[in-house]
Each structure stands twice: as C-alpha cells, then as structure tokens.
Amino acid sequence: xxxLQTTNPFELFWQDLPLPPGSTRPPLSEFEIExxxxxxxxLVDGRSNRIVHRDGIVLLTSHxxxxxxxxxxxxxxxxxxxxxxxxxxxxxxxxxxRVHLYLQGKVQDLDSRPATKIxxxxxxxxxxxxxxxxxxxxxxxxxxxxxxxxxxxxxIEADGSTPASMPCSSPASPVQTVEPVFTxxxxxxxxxxxxxxxxxxxxxxxxxxxxADLEALMSKAREVVGVIxxxxxxxxxxDKGEGEKGGSEAEGGTGREDAELQGLLLNMGIxxxxxxxxxxxxYHQELARQLARFLTGGSTSAGALxxxxxxxxxxxxxxxxxxxxxxxxxRGTALISPEDLLDACEALEPLQLGMRLRRFPxxxxxxxxxxxxxxxxxxxxxxxxxxxxxxxxxxxxxxxHLRVSIALAQEFLGTAEAQGLLCRDQSVQGTLFWPNRFPAxxxxxxxxxxxxx
Length: 453
Prior knowledge:
GO terms for molecular function: phosphatidylinositol-3-phosphate binding; ubiquitin binding. One of its GO terms (biological process) is protein transport to vacuole involved in ubiquitin-dependent protein catabolic process via the multivesicular body sorting pathway. Component of the endosomal sorting complex required for transport II (ESCRT-II). It comes from Nannochloropsis gaditana. The protein is α+β, with helices and mostly antiparallel strands. The protein has four domains: about 1-140, Pleckstrin-homology domain (PH domain)/Phosphotyrosine-binding domain (PTB) (PH-domain like); about 145-160 and about 215-270, no CATH class; about 270-370, Winged helix-like DNA-binding domain superfamily/Winged helix DNA-binding domain (Arc Repressor Mutant, subunit A, Orthogonal Bundle); about 380-440, Orthogonal Bundle (Arc Repressor Mutant, subunit A), CATH 1.10.10.10. About 40% of the residues lie in helices and about 15% in strands. The chain contains 16 helices and 13 strands. It has helices spanning about 1-5, 10-15, 105-110, 125-140, 190-220, 220-245, 255-270, 275-280, 285-295, 310-315, 320-330, 340-345, 375-385, 395-400, 405-420, 440-450, and strands at about 15, 35-45, 50-60, 65-70, 75-80, 85, 100-105, 115-120, 315-320, 355-360, 365-370, 420-425, 430-435. The strands form three sheets. An eight-stranded antiparallel sheet has the order 1-5-4-3-2-8-7-6. Strands 9-11-10 form a three-stranded antiparallel sheet. The longest helix has about 30 residues, at about 190-220. It starts with a helix and ends with a helix. Residues about 150-180, about 245-250 and about 300-305 have low confidence and may be disordered.
C-alpha cells in the first residue's frame, strides 16, 4: 500500500510515445480517428499543481490523448481507457482554463486530487471536455475489430464470384394501405385534438427510430472501413493482373464493374475532414496534411483506399482548380473556401509533405510533387511527338495522354520548348509542336562544311 501512495498518477498516465524517424507527428494506430487538436497546451501534475510540459499540441483521438512538442521532438500519450472522469474546476469565483482527468484503479482511490490537468492557453477547453466525455461514453477501444462483411447480399467475393449461399434480395412488396374509418371519436374539437396527438406521437416514434438507425450506422463505421479496405485490395490485385496481361480484359464486364466500384469508393469521401472547430489555430497546417494524404492516396480518405496516388496519376502536377474540386467532393458537406485551399497549399513545402505550390509565369497555379522533373516531362513529350503519325503535338494531345488540363498541357509544352526539345509552328490551323531537329541539322551541316574544307 505504501508503494501505491508514492506512485505518481501523472507518470502512470502519460507515457513516452516514440516518433517515426524524421517526423514530428505522432503515429496513429489502426481505426484510430482524430477528433480534436489544440496548440499552446501544457500538462500539469495534478498532485503538485506544477506545469511539467509547456506549450505543446494536444491531439484527442478516439482512443488516446496525445501531447507532442515539435521543437523538442517529444511526444506523450495516455489511453482513454484509464480515464474515469473528466471535469473542470468547480470554483465559480476563479475561472479555470484546465481540464481535470481522474484515473481508474486503486492509485486514484488513494487521492481525491486529479491525476493530471490539461491547460489551454488559447482557449478550446470546453470543446475538449465535451469531446472527451463523448469518447468516454462511446468507448471505441472496447469494440472488436471489424469483421469481413459484404456490402450487400449480392456483393462479389474476393475472387469476383457471387456467393451462392446468399441469394439476391427481391424487391420489397408493395405496402398495403388501409383507408381510415370514420367514427364519432374523430368528430368535433375533441377529434381534431386526438388526431393531432396521434400525429405527434407518430412523429416522435419516427424520430426515435431514425436516431436509432443513425447510431447503428455510426457503430458500423469501422466495419464499413474494413469492407472498403478488403475491396481495395481486390481492385489493386486486379489492376496488377490486368497490367501484366496488357489490359486485354479491361474492356469486359468486370472492368465496368470495377470502374463502378472505384466510383463508389471515391464517393465515400474523407471520413474525418479537418475543420476549424477540430483543429483550431492549426487549421491550415492540418488541412495541408490531410490534403497531402488525399493527393498521395493515403489512409485519410476512404476513397483513396481503392486507387493510386492522384498526383502521380496526373504526372506529378495538378492545377488548383482540379485539387479544389476533387478535395471538396471528398470532404462532402465540410467544404473549404479557395482561400483556405491556397493557404493550405502554401504550407505544403514548409511542412515537408512531399509537394509544393508552384506558380507559372502565365498565372497558372499548381500543386507539384517535390520529385517532379521537367526534364522527364520534356523527354516524354518529345517521344509522344515522334510517335504521332504526323510527328506533331497539340495541347489537346498532351492533355489526353498525360490526363491533365489544357492549361497545364500548354505549360508543359512551353517548358519543353524552352528546353529546346520541341519547336512550335503557329498557323491559321492552330499551334503545333514538333520535335526540334534544328540542332541535329546544324551539327550535320557543320560536319559537311568541315569535310568540304
């Protein structure tokens, strides 16, 4: 018992969290969802009331409370399963900016003081407390891992076949309606009041059933993610097999079904979009991180699970117009403004997220991968021009081959022209780009003059 009295609950709750090499962001476990983030947060020892760690970032997830300091490259975390209660100071004469956490077990029973306090210097205490209490009620960490479920009774198996043991559901039978029978109870003012009471009771019952269905749907969220990951694996293996076979089977019915499933995965969108409420003053930084994971096919978006990197599919560069449309589509109702997207894109390079914002002299703004090479694009355009029947390229040809917009295709052609790989021919029929053969002709002419001399 004496050993328990000398044990500090603060040190028992907050454990060191190793950071990945070269990263200042704590890793999350599988099925762990970010819920809230605040900066300028300090950790306080509940017994001594002493600030132990100052001015860090607190990240509240569905499973843990994570505190990390980017300047010190250190992170601590405490699991919510050890928290018995979260509340604020009850002193109405002295407003507090701290959230008090009380732990479960014998260590907390020996002392009525909180094990730890979390101090918010720039606000956000009430939102944090509300989220913690909600997570303690949901207790996601106690839920079993998602099982392999079918999207519907007619869902395909991993090998593409339809399960024989589960026949397709038949259309629902038409609902039979019964005409109301007139009685004297429905007449007069009393009848009107009874009808209103019946309608009100029906509305209450409908609302209760609707919220019950919503809670059931939310409880199955992790199972849905598991289904998406399973089908994403199937699609990836199919894409690999079709690539090895040369794509001869891509035009069949299975290719069309896979395309429909790809569209379904894209429409699933981002499961936990970053908002100003959840990220606070770190909104644009967290938005930039989520944008980077979305463009590189990371695990943040359910739609990204079934596809390759959007950025790499488009040659390592995308216009801000395309990024704005695709990102907002994935975010659903949590739309962002063009100004917020621009601020997030400007933060991509300082945060070292593998991409950056670039502006061409023509005014076109793009998101560009850090490993993007203009030389490779120029060489590819020259090869495309040489492969064409007439030996020339247009901006439409480049946009079709590289899957980019016309504006970006024109920028690519202008860059290749500046490199001396292509030359343009402007006429009333439009602008054509040809492989630049003038250097070779000049070299041949020089060799001929040398031999003649």
